[in-house]
């Protein structure tokens, strides 16, 4: 009973915080004098912060009305909860990153400032260059409430040294032979783990908690968390049962994935493969192990791609909302969009070429950028998102907890997930 109340509390807190942020414009801070802007982000990566600060410093040179722009990293695992707590507590940032899974709540709540007019009127902005497909998640009632600064497909980083030492074919060799499938990828991961004593395959940021990152796996079976209209649970579909049965076997029988409670950092050499996005390429050290980046393996339904998306929005209650929106236009103009493309694939159609992305991604080959990033953006589906995501996510996570043990009844667990979330979906 207490757990149920706690879960409902998460959803209520999110809805309440966003509703508070939507009520009126401008906060209680002193509006006099130059503005001090704060933008919450999820990354504390030094390379990311260095680039953000360089862009901010350039902006401030020609904008004396802005005295400071601070980028405030929040922990990834609790990012949205921390952000909404700040909003509810009257400490809302001026700008914020928003994940795709909470986009419906933020966009529909009225907490964010419409950006269309500011972006379209910014000199040299070229608003029409932004791919319409990347805007859909961030629009409501014909207005844009966040700029999709990162539309980043998932790929597989591979430690080719570990695979070769284990006598395994590399994904590049399997791709050339038309054999880069999940069956072969998991078999390769298991064999390499046995040989190396390290982890085989890590689905990045999943860690048996971030269940939505498993969409990078189950989409290959044609499975979905819920129906297109968001009203029907998909966790107990035959496709999902097949996918999760394969994942369970890979974890507890094949030992292709590290089990619950085991941490393995691919970029430190702790695993043979990881499913993640190109923003992590900055963690690869020069002179380290040999590596490659390839598309997700084909599933029973064939080739596919999954995209993670993040938007940047301006909080309506910011005491400096006008300056914040103006800085957002500068941060995402064509010049700075090209710079950010080093880590965050841009929504600008003119910049989605291997040549353009290669200029700011020197570690990645043109073929890698084309096959993983550009083709992935063109054909990929976005990770699961839904209104009321906070409570849904908690219920799904709790419902999946029994799955992460060796003797789990996969079908029964997935039926239980649907029992938990169907009433929420049907609202």
From TrEMBL:
It comes from Micromonospora vulcania. Residues 1-24 form the signal peptide. The keyword Signal applies. InterPro entries: Bact_solute-bd_prot1 (IPR050490), SBP (IPR006059). SUPFAM superfamilies: Periplasmic binding protein-like II. PANTHER family: ARABINOSE-BINDING PROTEIN-RELATED, DIACETYLCHITOBIOSE BINDING PROTEIN DASA. Keywords: Signal. It holds the Pfam family SBP_bac_1. Gene3D superfamilies: Periplasmic binding protein-like II (3.40.190.10). This is ABC transporter substrate-binding protein.
